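Quick one: co-fold with adenosine-5'-diphosphate.
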Amino acid sequence: MTKRIFRSILTVTLAALLACLVLIIGVLHAYFLERVEVELANQTVYIAQGVEQNGLDYFDGLQSRSRITWVAADGTVIYDNQEDASQMENHADREEIRDALILGHGQSERYSETLAQKTIYYALRLDDGSVLRASDSQYSVWLMVLQMLQPVAIVVLAALVLAGFLASRVARQIVEPINAIDVSNPGDETPYYDEITPLLAKIRSQNRQIQRQIAQLRCRQEEFAAITENMSEGFLVLDCKTTVLSYNAAALRLLRAETVPMDGEVSAYQLNREAGFRRCVEQALAGRHSEQLMEKDDSCRQVIASPVFQEEHLTGAVLVILDVTEKERRESLRREFTANVSHELKTPLTSILGTAEILGNGLVRSEDVSHFAGNIYKETRRLIQLVNDIIRLSQLDEGGSISDWSDVELQSLVREVLEQVRPAAEKRNITLEVRGQPETVRGVPQIVTEVVYNLCDNAVAYNRAGGRVTVTTGENPEGITLQVEDTGIGIPAEARDRIFERFYRVDKSHSTEGTGLGLSIVKHGAAYLGATVCLQSEEGKGSVFTLVFPRQGA
Ligand code: ADP
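Sure, here it is.
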């Protein structure tokens, strides 16, 4: 703007100076022309006196800058100081000569063939009727003008420099108050120029609008960040060059990223270099939806990538990263469980089928029939036990269709359970004992019974002949306790974490009775009741399973 104002002022000044120059030249020219004409007339009068006295001889010593022509009354040229008079044509028709013959003097300006330039003429009639003419070229007038122009040009140049300096100063002074306005926050005070008041009002209103919009955007951004940051799923937005545009903390955690994307300068490949992730990004940026599983160490993550199109142009990709470790673990447990169930069902069924086949063929002696029938009975019981355990486990998994909660007195429940296992205990001379004081817990009686039964059943099954099973009820700082202690074979350290898994058995040859689901029911049942179960065991000496129930009202 300053430059523009400067240029405008300078142009105007230049135009004014040029106009002045033209005017000065015009005035000077008119002035010098008049002077030349006067001089010419004076000179003619002076020479005319000399010619009247001395005739042609006067011209001999005459020194004149002007051209002098003497013309007879009939127009014949008598003398010319620049041309041969005899060669010159008759001058009677020349305007100034004609006027002089009639009026006594004449004056004209025209182009001279002889001098080949514009010429000023002055003619004077002598007493004898002849005419004396002096002429001078206009060139000499311009010469005079040019001589005068030199100082004028210096003055114009000086004026121009001064104009330039003043123009730059004025331009700066005009712009200064405008530059001083704080456009981002123009105050309410009256501006230096009234003309910009509406502009400032507009800027103020636009600033307010921009501030409002920025606040709204910030609010939305914060909402978005709050949502994405609290998501357990990873979220990543990429442009089509794989640059990370947006992400949440979960994405970095799930991708195990070492680099934190800053200023949109980090490529997605710098966050994770696993082949599955790279494949997923590549496919999404090729315009295809893609899903990949990434397994590393004990974790399993799923990456779902979708391309982003804007007006049919691929502009990037959105990636969602899920931690599917638990889901995959459950899936694999389910597969394992199905395989185990099939296997566990197949064994007794095969045995029943074989025995029934032998009985059906009539190949069995009558005294052996009861043994084979006993076999079928045992395997069928085992099958029923297995199916019941599976049903119970799935009920505990589902958490539904289980009886109502009530107060359960542990000591009397333990006594009932021990009565159930007593026949097996007596067979191997195992002593059953109840200790502690009566304790009441809040629970589902059926589940508490099943949990305690499974622990006592195992304590008998994995005991040594003549051993002891002691069940103690009591309390500790954590809650109400129920301890089942045996003097049996104990559990090897490496198996202690696994015995609660479905179908896991330390030594399958030890007891053909078990299903491998008892401790799973204990674990799930205890969890359902809000109780914890822990184990202490020493191989060859025995094991202690402790249930800790929450106190009532806790
Ligand atoms: P099972 O039907 O085989 O008893 P469980 O789930 O009840 O299945 O127990 C899993 C495994 O844990 C058993 O096979 C056994 O090897 C071991 N176990 C359970 N309780 C005891 C115990 N009191 N003493 C020694 N080993 C035990």
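If it helps, DSSP finds twelve helices and 17 strands in the chain.
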